[in-house]
From TrEMBL:
Domain EamA: 8-139, 153-288
Region (Disordered): 294-331
Protein's UniProt name: DMT family transporter
The entry's keywords: Membrane, Transmembrane, Transmembrane helix
Coiled-coil ranges (or none): none
Ranges annotated as spanning the membrane: 40-58, 70-89, 95-114, 121-140, 152-173, 185-203, 215-236, 243-265, 271-290
InterPro entries linked to this entry: AA-Vitamin_Transporters, EamA_dom, EmrE-like
Organism annotation: Billgrantia bachuensis
Amino acid sequence: MPPQALSLLIATGFVVCWSSGFVGGRLASALDTPVPTLFAWRFLLAALLVALWCRLALGTVPTARDMRREMIVGSLTMGGYLLGVIIALDLGVSAGVTALIAALQPLLAASVAGRWLGERLGAGGWLGMAVATLGVSLCVVDDMQRALGAPWWAYLLPLLSVASVTLGSVLAVRQASSMPLPVALLAQLIAASGIFLLAALIAEGGTLSPPMLEPSYLATLGWLVVLSSLGGYGFFVASLRRLGVTLTSALVHLTPAVTLVWAAAMFGERLGPAGLTGMALAGVGAGVAIRSVRRSGPTHRGPGARRAPRTWSTDETPDATRRAPSRASPY
């Protein structure tokens, strides 16, 4: 597959599958079971499936050092990130607005990546980020005016998720290893399983309820395992390795639109005029930011980030990519 086509496939898969996590969290909050328990079973099942994949397809055992590093990343990008999201959803923040608040991550990621990784974002990129942030703010105000809106402090929880996933993303790129993608995903899923097992035990007073056999429970669990865990985080790791932190973070701005379509069709959640205006601004801002990242060319990393994979712009030729591939990319 041509490098540009592969990059487009990874970006598209990331946007679609990442947005499925917000819908899955909304589905989980509607079940008659503690959400942390469902998420604990979700990550345990996903880790089991990936472990079988690694055993059958790779037959390799990663080093303990690489596993520890990836588990730290997973505890931030999966565990810490999703705890804030699912609690916000359970408190009444709509799925679409939760996704929009989480889409503030590119602002923080661009700041951190520029300092730690040398990934450049020009003036146009910062303008796009600012416009997108204004759009997110309008959507939050619109959502807070609903009759059954969540308390104001519930909207701060996705912001904590933003900080967690940004730190994990930077660590994933800055301390990139050469382990295969399935093995890295397995380590991250194991870490997330541990975090949600602990959360479930706390929520249920020291016990863990077994999975229910009801169709709605099994359907939600399947959605979270296949689309959100294997798809969302698989594409997330692949996007970080191939596209870098800044472009992957800019793509996050595109997930609220997909989430809104699903939420409107499945739950009847719809934004008002201010919310729709905010959604449009967020989309325009994301487009400006993404174009700015693509035009910036290859990133120039400082001495402190030598192990991070190099990010290639879409304007470079396939020959250039083949001559100097990322050491951490399996593609």
